[in-house]
Amino acid sequence: MSPAPLIERYRERLSLEPGDPVVTLNEGSTPLVEAPRLSERLGVRAYLKFEGANPTGSFKDRGMTVAVSRAKGRGAEAVICASTGNTAASAAAYAARAGLRGAVIVPEGKIAIGKLAQALMHGARVVALQGNFDDALRIVRELAHKHPIELVNSVNPHRIEGQKTAAFEVIEELGGAPGALAIPVGNAGNVTAYWRGFQEAGTAPILYGFQAEGAAPLVHGEPVASPETVASAIRIGNPARWEEAMAAFTASRGRVAAVSDEQILDAYRWLAAGEGVFCEPASAASVAGLLAHGLPTVEDSEPPESVVCVLTGHGLKDPDTALSKAPAVINCENDLSAVEQAVFE
Ligand code: AN7
Predict the structure, then answer these.
(1) CB-count burial class (<10 Å; 0-12, 13-18, 19+) for 220
(2) 229 in contact with ligand 1, CB cutoff 6 A
(3) In what order do the strands lie in the sheet with 101-107?
(4) Gap from CA of 314 to ligand 1 centroid (Å)
(5) What is the pLDDT of residues 257-306, one digit of tens each?
(6) In whole angstroms, what is the distance from residue 54 CA to residue 77 CA?
(7) In angstroms, what is the span from residue 339 Cα to ligand 1's centroid?
(8) What's the CATH fold of domain 60-155?
(9) How far apart are alpha carbons 72 and 22 in whole angstroms?
(10) Beta pairing class for 255-259 and 101-107
């Protein structure tokens, strides 16, 4: 038996109306994997919350099941979003599931190929914008204002409600909140959601947020006009949940910091080869950040005893980046001794 859909597990803590249908693909209940080698490197007990195990391969499904259920409940016929890829894949899947039309606006040439395949296969109208994510978000906000179409970006409050359930799961599985949580930050919806979840459960772990160096508006304190990073999921220059995310870092006694593309890719490869967990580059920013910056604490507070790294999306989403960074394939002729040599040499 697969675990209950997230809305069934947590309905009384979510924002749905009594009559809303449950549009679900059995999301949530993702593995919290112990990470012995990472623990050793950090000197603290480390876990990986593998959100790549959600139905469309990213954490977005947690918010989408709630947002699309609410949209369907209030009679919407179509949903729309701007996306760096994962929101598009998730919105397209849940729209298909609900029998709604879906439209997704993505930055042209800047989303991972797996995510594009998903959005197209689920039957969404996929529009490649000659602009970046921030441009796309501005445009869809206006479109949703003008037309009867439901906006399912994380500016939609039901998205945050659904995503906060990841914090509940972590608490249940560990028997309490971890000392700290490390998370990649793009549009800043997810860190906002975790903080809400932890707070509603009466806990307050230290939150460490990490942005890519070339797309680090929260670190610099001002929007980035032309964000650039290999971690295309978090190539975002003007996060919608800016103030809430900064408030969460402050209240949790944590911080937001930047990691270079090289640090991200090193962590990405190391997690796959060293812990057996294949996440996408943006997700690896959480681990890269801890490896680069450690687990700083404000004065007078004890260092955390455990840390959960949120791995937001599956490595298979972005095979191009994987293959460009992985070791080469060994070509071999059809012959026993040639294979022997290839394997053992
Ligand atoms: C793998 O899909 O913004 O800080 O449009 O796909 O909540 O934005 C994706 C974001 C981290 C950042 N990791 O989360 C989108 C989109 C992965 C992501 C983030 C995203 P937020």
Answers:
(1) exposed
(2) no
(3) 125-129, 101-107, 78-82, 150-151
(4) 12
(5) 999 999 999 999 999 999 999 999 999 999 999 999 999 887 767 889 99
(6) 25
(7) 42
(8) Rossmann fold (3.40.50)
(9) 9
(10) unpaired
pLDDT by residue (tens digit) across 96-131? 999 999 999 999 999 999 999 999 999 999 999 999
Q: Which two tokens stand for residue 207?
A: 């939150």
Q: Mention every residue, 6+ apart, whose C-beta is less than 8 A from residue 145.
A: none
Give Rg (Cα) of the chain: 20
Strands (E), 189-338: 206-212, 255-259, 306-311
Domain locations in the chain? 6-58+158-324, 60-155
Q: Do the domains 6-58+158-324 and 60-155 sit in the same CATH topology, yes or no?
A: yes
Angstrom distance (rounded) from CA 233 to CA 125 = 20
Find the Cα–Cα–Cα–Cα dihedral 96, 57, 150, 97, rounded to 10°. Answer: 20
6-58+158-324, what's its fold? Rossmann fold (3.40.50)
Mutate to test the pocket of ligand 1, among 51, 60, 218, 286 (most ligand atoms within 8 A of CB): 60
3-class SS of residue 306? strand
Say if residues 235 and 228 touch (Cβ distance below 8 Å).
Answer: yes
